[in-house]
Amino acid sequence: MANADTDTKNAAKQEQEQEQEQQQLYTSRVVLTTYPSQLGIDPIPLSWGASSAEERGPVVVSRQKDSFGRRNAIGAGGGSYCIYRALAVAIGALTPSHRPDFRLTEPTHSIGPFPAWSDPEKIVSMDPWGHAIVDHFSEQLDQGIDIRPTIAITQAHMKLAEIDDAIDKGILRCDGDVVTKSGELKVVKVASEPVWHLPGVAKRFGINEATLRRALFEDTGGMYPELITRPDLKVFLPPIGGLTVYIFGNPAHIPDPTKRLTMRVHDECNGSDVFGSDICTCKPYLIYSIEECAREAQNGGVGVVVYFRKEGRALGEVTKYLVYNARKRQEGGDTAANYFKRTEFVAGVKDMRFQALMPDILHWLGVKRIDRFISMSNMKYEAIVGSGIEIVERVSIPEERMPADSKVEIEAKIADGYFTSGEVPTEEDLKTTKGRNWDEIAH
Ligand SMILES: [Zn+2]
Q1: Catalytic residue among 351, 360, 372, 394, which?
Q2: Which one of the record's GO molecular function terms can you name (predicted)?
Q3: Against a cut of 0.90, is the pTM above it?
């Protein structure tokens, strides 16, 4: 009995301590959601697509003390990394009231503003002023409002074994400018986190805003009740990955109609891009496009690679591996004819990248015309052309650069309508194009 008593006492003590700890981090009252008419709720006006940053207003999503009532966006900053920030706060590594010191963080290169920045329909999935909050919203920052950048612009050198190889083979030359004498690529990089203007996103997909809000609420496990209770807040920062832009050559050439532009829009494939898996053509495409972009820059134009964090056609890597297994184990082996079917069996759809929002970044960069588009994706092509950007030439990867096991994917995609400068495979071809079988992979 004595032991049980001590246990109860200890448990009570522990609970009390935990409560105290929580109270040190947060106020005792938990605000599960807010309502437009609630006392103390007074969002900073946000006019999406206004002609200047000042008229548009800053995006404020912070729940910090001085910002909570002035929030004009739903969700959390940092994309998917908001969870790690929460962990840092919970374990005491970060105070919840921490504010970034923005000194010396300003962009290395100036981009824009372009007319699309103040067009409410051209850019709906990022904040066009996200890199310039210190320039435009210093007044609100001084008032204690917690505004965070959602875009950053920097510069770097890239050293890649494949580029060394291309230099050795004479495919690419070291001009001392785009490619340094020691074979490094000079690059300007832009990182962007997602900022969705919900009415614009809904319109892009041809659905109504209420349906979009409900779906986002349900499929995030009810994480953001304000999607439902705050119809007055039109901006949502979703907990998803963002994108990176790699610019080869002068970024000022991108909107210049007298300069040529080579571009690739690449969706993440960690297995191939980083680890060299040979079941698909992702890395060969990426490397080929980097070479072509560098070459365009050396010829006086500019090259751009946009890298989206949409792993495994935005189905994620777990789904992707399940599909790999099913493809290899199915009766008749891994054929191009059944390539998409296996993805649909597991995921319900064959692709969740839905390229409708993708052209936003191109409009942010001031792209008007793409002279060489390094991609075979009909979805990317149609989204870009449909958004008002001209594509002069579509370029697919040279056949000799395709890994043997990736033929299944390539043929299936071409048969499904993807672009090719070569032949479209017949039904019979699709049945006979086979990937490596399971026994050959086993180890
Ligand atoms: Zn891949």
Answers
A1: 351
A2: GTP cyclohydrolase II activity
A3: yes
